[in-house]
Amino acid sequence: MAGLLELHDVSLSFKGVRALNALSFSVARGEICALIGPNGAGKSSLLNVINGVYRADSGDVVFDGERFEAIHPFKAAHLGIGRTFQHNALFRRLTVRENVLAGISRHGKASFLENIFRFGRDAEERRDFEARSSRIISFLGLEPYADTVVSTLPYGVQKRVDLGRALSASPKLLLLDEPMAGMNQDEKRDMSRVIAEVNRAFGTTIVLIEHDVGIVLGLASHVVVLDYGRKVADGGPDEIRTNPEVISAYLGTVH
Ligand SMILES: Nc1ncnc2c1ncn2[C@@H]1O[C@H](COP(=O)(O)OP(=O)(O)OP(=O)(O)O)[C@@H](O)[C@H]1O
Fold first, then answer.
1. ipTM higher than the 0.85 cut
2. Ligand 1 mean position to 195 CA, how many Å?
3. Domains of the chain, with CATH numbers?
4. The whole model's pTM is what?
């Protein structure tokens, strides 16, 4: 069966630096796929090609049966590709609820400001958005912070808010760029549990970048290992865990 996301021979260079080199793999509907590999391997560049921030030099991307060589990020979002960034894409002076509402509003008739400040054309739509944002906030365990300004929250909580913002648009595919970066082990375990719950409860297909291999092998059902823009391994966590080349080159000792 065709994957929700398929990459065919995707290459991308920056002034002679090959960020992605004829990369092909497929992400099945409903799976959690982790991208791992050393710094500079091409992981973020790949997410940027998938959601249209970068245009591949060659190759193509097929998302949900639709093939594209280049896509605008707004179109990607409209097709159902959601995204978080290494550095959160949050409105730092707005509250958690307002940030989640902002993610939803992008897909509505009323403007973001109309929804935030509760004026505007479509009261029914606004009530629906507010109910959806409350459900997401509750699902992510963010209720205690719902009316708190984002910039005052601990980093780990902000990462969860960013996940809520991306989730609010009900994406089919969620791209998470280092959702656990800068977290301690307890925060990572919490975030990992939340990501698994999102995947299970909403059936959202997830592609994530994470450096902590222990966390990745416990969370992902599919792991793609990159180095210098090339794919060096592609399989289930057990396959990756026991791949001698992967262990010696990228993972070190895995427990
Ligand atoms: N906008 C850019 N301009 C120039 N070079 C870039 C740009 N983005 C990425 N690169 C280069 O492309 C290569 C792949 O970078 P990329 O950020 O995709 O790797 P990564 O695996 O995400 O690394 P990290 O784990 O450090 O985030 C690197 O050599 C990087 O320097």
1. yes
2. 25
3. 1-80+171-255 (3.40.50.300), 91-169 (no CATH)
4. 0.89
